[in-house]
Amino acid sequence: MELNELEKIRVEKINAMRAAGVEPYPTRSEVNISIQQAVDDFTQFENSHPDESFSDHFILGGRIRSIRTMGKLAFAHIEDGSGRIQLMLRLNELGQENLDQFKSWFDIGDFIQAEGSLMRSRTGEVTLLVSAFKMLAKAVSPLPAAKDEEVDGQIIRHATLSDPETRFRERYADLAINEDVREIFRTRTAVVRSLQRFMDSHGFLEVETPILQPIYGGAAAQPFTTHHNQLKQELFLRISFELYLKRLLVGGLDRVYEIGRDFRNEGVSYKHNPEFTQLEFYWAYADYLKVMEFTEQMVSTAAQDVLGTMKVQFKGQEIDLTPPWKRVELRQGILDACGIDIDQHPEAGTLFKAMADKGMTPNPESTRGKLIDALIGDFLEPNFIQPTFLYNYPRDISPLAKKKPENPAVVERFEGFIGGMELCNSFTELNDPLDQEQRFQEMGRAYADNDEEQHPMDEDYLQAMSYGMPPNGGFGMGIDRLVMLLTNKTSIREVILFPHLREQKDKEEE
After folding, report:
1. What is each CA distance from 181 to 81, 388, 391, 419, 494, in whole angstroms?
2. Residue 493: phi, psi to the nearest 5?
3. CB 3.0–4.6 Å: which of 7, 143, 402, 467 could bond 3 by disulfide?
4. Cβ(429)–Cβ(474) under 8 Å?
5. Local confidence band at 260 (pLDDT 50, 70, 90 cut-offs)
6. 0.85 exceeded by the pTM?
7. 275 within 8 A of 458, measured Cβ to Cβ
8. What does the record's cofactor remark say about binding (predicted)?
9. What is the per-residue pLDDT across 32-72, written as a single tens digit (0 to 9) for each?
10. Cα(409)–Cα(343) distance, integer angstroms
């Protein structure tokens, strides 16, 4: 690691500490309380004992966020994961040598342990009057922020890390500097916990299914491939939990769900990352209509739990998640939006011509399903700002869904859209093994080998179905997109701790 001038100065301080017999990275810490808990204890005591002195002694730890020194006195602000507090270091309590060591060795960004009693400063700020301190970890590199400055009793933060590329690439620095970023990921955890509670309270069992799979399936996507050396076996990172979760329905687990990572070898965008978090569930004896109502309740409950409201701000608009959500039948929605009746075009060729006649430029190699997807993406999805269920999809783009009894060309499927993006997907699941085998065969013939829409045959899944699978409703939702919605972030990279990024050398070469 090549050091700059500031880093060299800090390394010199490390050497000076060690020469004085002080270890800048000690093995043990005696911190016994969080900053926020200490402040809360002090404030509670003040309120209940206004005429008494607070005698409790605390040992706090945290990162130094600001330093201000003068002759016989020094002030600092430190911060841990719970909050921030001011330190007062005085000659009377510490002695000249210790005070000089603090001034000489400590910098913004270092981790410090400070022992003492709590008091109020002249400005009324809760302050730790320090009687002893020690270095917990010397920061060699200054964080990419100039400093925190106190102006008229207010902390002013200068030069916070703001470049998105740097923030995502050095997320550890981003988190250390930007409290609002830390809050995003606290919110993310709260969202997951709320979803788990909701599922558990409705009798669902949380399970874990394989990430490494010999046959990928359950979605339309290209997988990542890997190789098991001992077994001499090609394996795939899962693109969906679906086929394994539905195997559990065969085994008698009637309501199952999983929250975990999926991996898709596809392009990246503001709403796509190669690895992402999904919630999937399968519900025996339910259908897509029941799942619609369940979805409304689940998402709105998560918003209420985490934000305290079902109305959220996203992309400058207020979105009301309160049930019931709007429902739009797919055929009618496309007809209303662009004047094309997809039922009048059962083949890709005629649908392509109808789109071209309307001035569109579809890919002539596209299947009918992909052409319909293009219509949804161009005319419907961007306009579904308030929560909307788009339902009743064509059979040829939904290989795992059950047909409508009155129209075998249409399947019982819905997608949920909010804020102009797809949030979730659901089916009345196919449970006829003979029909399923035929669908697999059709999907294999209809697409080229490198087409992400191709769905491989899964003989073991068919075997499971042949033992009898109860009718069921299935559901999948991107957790990352839900967190985007609830935190008002327009890029998926903002809500994933370590998003996938292009190598820096590739970026520079371009």
Report:
1. 13, 29, 36, 22, 8
2. -65, -25
3. 7
4. yes
5. very high
6. yes
7. no
8. Binds 3 Mg(2+) ions per subunit.
9. 999 999 999 999 999 999 888 888 899 999 999 999 999 99
10. 9
Helices (H) and strands (E) in the chain, counts: 16, 21
State the Cα–Cα distance between residues 383 and 379, nearest whole angstrom. Answer: 7
Confidence bin at 146 (pLDDT 50/70/90): very low
Contact 130, 93 (CB under 8 A): yes
**Residue 310 near residue 321 (C-beta atoms within 8 A):** yes
pLDDT at site 166:
87
Please count the residues of the chain.
Answer: 510
DSSP 232: T
Q: Report residue 496 as tokens.
A: 């994933």
30 is in an annotated binding site: no
Domains contained in the chain, CATH given: 5-159 (2.40.50.140), 181-325+386-509 (3.30.930.10)
- As given in the structure block, the two tokens for residue 45 are 């005591």
Q: What is the DSSP letter of 129?
A: E
Separation of alpha carbons 496 and 256, rounded Å: 25
- 324: three-class secondary structure by DSSP: coil
pLDDT tens-place string over residues 185-231 = 999 999 999 999 999 999 999 999 999 999 998 888 899 999 999 99
- Percent of the chain past pLDDT 90, that is, above it, reads 81
